[in-house]
Amino acid sequence: MMINKTRILNEFIELVSVPCPSKDEKAEADLLVQKLQAMGLEVKVDDAGRKIGGTTGNVWAFLPGNVEGAAGLFFEAHMDSVPPTTGTKVVRRDGVLYSDGTTTLGGDDKVGIAAVLEAVRAVQEQNIPHGDIQLCFTIAEEIGCLGVVNLDPKDIRADLGYCLDIGGAPGIVTNSAPLLFDIYFTVKGKSAHAGIEPEKGINAIMLAAKALTALPAYGRLDEETTLNIGQIEGGAATNIVAEQAKFVIDMRCMDPDKLERLKNETIRCIREVVEAGGGILEVDPVEGCPAVHVAEDHTAVLLAKQAADNLQLPFELTKTGGCSDGNFLCGYGLPCVLLATGMNKVHTTEECLRECDLYDCARWVTEIIRITGLPYTGDGKRSVPPIIPHDVPLPSNP
């Protein structure tokens, strides 16, 4: 089983050279549709772009299996990159890929796309037996996973999923990610002239400040919980007592029940301070994505481990405090874990990618496909672990 290193390297460079800001991924999508059709896959573009005001939808592709009873696999990566993302020029230096320093590299997430494309080509060219293979390349992941949020879960035709969108060397699997809440607070006070009669006003900015300083903690609260005050704004002019102030708190936890208690206690604490100062508080909690935990002995994990072991890639099972398309895929009922792709220093112009990680990522995906299609053993059982039912509930607001 081999991959074509020259081909995947050239394809990665081609993919990152195409402008692909969030909500404007049409050039990238058109290129991928062309490539997937040339590979003989069933291809479609959904209507997620129309729903979010974008230029294209998610790109889907399907390759029917040629092994009866093999698990259907789903591979996902996103097309968009964070700015500056237009005009990327790749620089190769000592086995590492960089941009020229004026843009991000775009390895987040073109390395995932390139690895999947190369793996499918390798499977086809080497006549590797395989189950059904479904690909999905999403839009607008970087601005809230809008592509996966707006896909139709009925389009998913697979048993197991792999999201190629996290840092670390190939061989690392992330099986746990938190539930996220963004809580939008609006503090309303009373305006007055700040130089003539400030005593007649109620300063909403100061009430917000007092409320935030009353919180018992922020940042990392414990091993599985974080709380961040990420945005704040308020006031109309320097000579007006601020009538209104707004701020947003991002809170995450692996345990949904614990997060619910934290949410309620945070709102209670802030409300007490605001109302004690004569203000009014409006609160809008928005659930960002469902929590994820795919068991260590789930088939999705065991297949990735077996493939990594076969390739002598150091296997490690981890959890993340971030949220990705994988959270929503799990929420839709597809057991999905994250595969590390080697992306490094993402979202900066210092982003880089080791060439060996690009190749290993493609080899890893190819090996997962290969071992999933292994024949039955003499006792009538497949030589890969059985599919374990997934117990992650559907999100309340996908």
Give descriptors for this structure:
disordered C terminus, alpha+beta, 398 residues, 30% helix, 5-stranded antiparallel beta sheet
Summarize the structure.
The strands form 3 sheets. Strands 1, 2, 3, 6, 7, 8, 14, 15 and 16 form a 9-stranded mixed beta sheet that branches. With 398 residues, the chain is of the alpha+beta class. The chain is built from 10 helices and 17 strands.
Describe the model.
The structure is a single chain. The chain is an alpha+beta fold. It is built from ten helices and 17 strands. Strands 1, 2, 3, 6, 7, 8, 14, 15 and 16 form a nine-stranded mixed sheet that branches. Strand 10 and strand 11 (225-234) form a beta hairpin. Helix 6 (204-213) crosses helix 7 (256-276).
Which descriptor suits the 3D outline? elongated
Distance between the termini: 39 Å
Total helical elements: 10
**Element pattern in H and E:** HHEHEEEEHEHEEEHEEEHEEHEHEEH
Q: Major sheet, described briefly? A: 9 strands, mixed
Q: Indicate the mean pLDDT.
A: 92
Strand content: 25-35%
